[in-house]
């Protein structure tokens, strides 16, 4: 009933393989038809070829998978001759091309695991058809010519990469034109995505998936009132844009005119671009493969900080390498922060930052913002930045760190506060991140200290300000929700309080981490304060008890009830009385202390003979 025909030329270098074929017949009633040959005659398959776990199949000449053939390899196949696949496209596991002379790859093959080039001579050329790399193209030794017929595939399940870097012994090379894909996640229509190119001389015109239009080089013209949802009626527009840090700025304070339409020409290595596309689209572009070499550095040069409010040193860059990179140190001349526009997910429509971290991987062709610290700088990425993996997010150390998340009308944003003994309370280039306002009508949340707006605000654990403003640009009208996250990650006693200046309410977030409120899209952003009491610092008291704190050269005293006389006294570090007032009332009292020098003071509030003291910093 079953026929097994093996040609006499069979030369498979493992007795286990013979046992595996027999086992498949006996246990699975597997039908193997056609002629399987190796050695001088190679191997031809027109049915099902199985290579079991722990078996290496050596084909000492050509491997031909014909129209009806399938290849199921749980382990390695090594081929010294040509590789032809006219059958089932997917190749499940490792295939190694290890001939000493020229080899060709023909037909259509999707390598779901690894295609390895390990040649002692000659070139492996993808002569026709398509080779799709779904995981890794490993350049161990020798040369491969992609020949315009090789694709690094990107799909919802992951994105492939080129590996000539993960082992110091790898010295293989890739020549010719390579095609690279980038899957754009999300389920909405016409979202913004930030992309780049992982090949040289990629033509913008190849991005047919986004329906290119508009005059190449046309500058966006904002409305006089700078509404990010609209542009002037005479403004050019398109589906692909590049950002110019130096403008020129057509409306003072408005960043819209930093965008220029791209619809022709070539993409620039290391530069980022904004495209409008449907979620679920896969972009594909091709170009020469100069971006992968153990010795080369890919660079986007001459980036400046113009000093303008609009540009402020921000540049849209990208990962120009055909593999992920690690963001564990910024290139010279740049702040440590990198900002990513979230096209989908909980924080869709907002910019979220990362700081250097050995686990912070950035996907191939991902566009993101970086900031030039001072003078001109080159966004130069040596090959040492490259890593294996398929990043979507990275693991973070959340010790002494908490987030405030705002949610409203289906939108969300967050801001982060970190405490460390190794930072200052000013802007630290390696530890802090600015806030970039969401471009759409949706909430933006940030903290502010000494005139700087933060997305990540790192403060000194032992000498931190006790109060920091938290600003909310509502963007929409309706019901809002604040949620405090990770407050259980502190290694010191921590009390964090939220104050709503509009409603004169204080809530301890370490006890109740959720705060609900209403807001209008036109509300004053400077509505909230965060108060911190860490370690041995005395907690603030809320509810029916008195609350005392200082902020912005003012003292604040909350008196839930007042019957009789109340007094506030201010003492300096020597114990001298420097200010005194009895002008206190029930509710919230603000006492202006602008005429008192900055420094540490003791506030003592006395109500009906009962005193409460707090140490504050003015």
Walk me through this protein's architecture.
With 618 residues, the protein is an all-beta fold. 2% of the residues lie in helices and 42% in strands. The protein is built from one helix and 50 strands. The chain has a 16-stranded mixed beta sheet that branches. Strands 33, 34, 35, 36, 37, 38, 39, 40, 41, 42 and 43 form an eleven-stranded mixed beta sheet that branches. It has a four-stranded antiparallel beta sheet with strand order 20-23-21-22, with no helix packed on it. Strand 49 and strand 50 form a beta hairpin. The longest helix has 14 residues. The relative contact order is 0.06. The N terminus is likely disordered.
């Amino acid at each position: 009933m079953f026929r097994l025909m093996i040609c006499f030329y069979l030369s498979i270098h493992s007795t286990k393989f013979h046992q595996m074929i027999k086992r498949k017949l006996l246990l699975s009633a597997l039908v193997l038809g056609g002629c399987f040959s190796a050695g001088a005659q190679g191997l031809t398959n027109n049915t099902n070829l199985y290579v079991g776990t722990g078996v290496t199949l050596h084909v000492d000449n050509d491997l031909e998978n014909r129209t009806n053939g399938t290849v199921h390899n749980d382990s390695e196949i090594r081929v010294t001759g040509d590789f032809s696949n006219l059958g089932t496209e997917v190749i499940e596991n490792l295939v190694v091309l290890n001939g000493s002379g020229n080899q060709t790859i023909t037909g259509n093959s999707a390598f779901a695991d690894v295609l390895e080039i390990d040649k002692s001579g000659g070139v492996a050329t993808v002569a026709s058809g398509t080779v799709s790399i779904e995981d890794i193209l490993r350049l161990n030794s020798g040369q491969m010519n992609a020949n315009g017929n090789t694709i690094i595939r990107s799909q919802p399940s992951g994105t492939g990469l080129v590996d000539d870097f993960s082992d110091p012994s790898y010295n293989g090379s890739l020549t010719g034109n390579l095609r690279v894909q980038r899957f754009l996640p999300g389920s909405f229509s016409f979202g913004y995505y930030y992309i780049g190119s992982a090949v040289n001389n990629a033509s913008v015109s190849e991005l047919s998936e986004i329906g290119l239009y508009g005059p190449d080089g046309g500058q966006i013209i904002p409305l006089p009132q700078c509404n990010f949802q609209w542009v002037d009626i005479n403004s050019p527009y398109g589906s692909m844009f590049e950002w110019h840090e130096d403008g020129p700025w057509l409306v003072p304070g408005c960043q819209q005119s930093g965008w220029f339409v791209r619809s022709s020409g070539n993409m620039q290595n290391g530069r980022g671009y904004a495209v409008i596309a449907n979620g679920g689209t896969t972009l594909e572009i091709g170009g020469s493969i100069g971006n992968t070499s153990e010795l080369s550095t890919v660079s986007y040069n001459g980036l400046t900080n113009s000093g303008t409010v609009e540009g402020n040193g921000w540049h849209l860059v990208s990962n120009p390498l055909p593999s992920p990179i690690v963001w564990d140190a910024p290139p010279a001349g740049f702040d440590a922060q990198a900002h990513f526009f979230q096209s989908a997910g909980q924080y869709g429509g907002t910019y979220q930052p990362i700081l250097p971290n050995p686990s912070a991987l950035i996907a191939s062709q991902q566009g993101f913002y970086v900031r030039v610290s001072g003078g001109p700088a080159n966004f130069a990425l040596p090959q040492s930045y490259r890593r294996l993996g398929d990043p979507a997010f990275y693991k973070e150390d959340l010790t002494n760190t908490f987030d405030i998340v705002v949610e409203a009308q289906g939108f969300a944003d967050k801001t982060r506060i970190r405490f460390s003994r190794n930072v200052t309370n000013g802007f630290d280039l390696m530890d802090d991140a600015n806030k970039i306002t969401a471009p759409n009508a949706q909430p933006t949340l940030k903290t502010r200290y000494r005139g700087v707006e933060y997305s990540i605000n790192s403060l000194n654990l032992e000498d931190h300000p006790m109060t920091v403003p938290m600003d909310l640009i509502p963007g929409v009208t309706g019901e809002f929700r604040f949620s405090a996250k990770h407050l259980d990650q502190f290694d010191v006693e921590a009390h964090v309080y939220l104050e709503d200046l509009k409603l004169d309410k204080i809530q301890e977030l370490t006890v109740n981490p959720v705060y609900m409120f209403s807001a209008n899209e036109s509300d004053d952003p400077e509505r909230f304060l965060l108060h911190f009491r860490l370690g041995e610092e005395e907690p603030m008291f809320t509810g029916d008890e008195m609350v005392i704190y200082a902020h912005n050269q003012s003292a604040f005293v909350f008196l839930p009830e007042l019957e009789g006389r109340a007094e506030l006294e201010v003492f300096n570090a020597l114990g001298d009385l420097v200010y005194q007032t009895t002008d206190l009332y029930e509710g919230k009292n603000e006492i202006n202390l602008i005429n008192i020098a900055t420094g540490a003071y003791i506030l003592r509030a006395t109500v009906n003979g009962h005193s409460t003291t707090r140490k504050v910093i003015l």
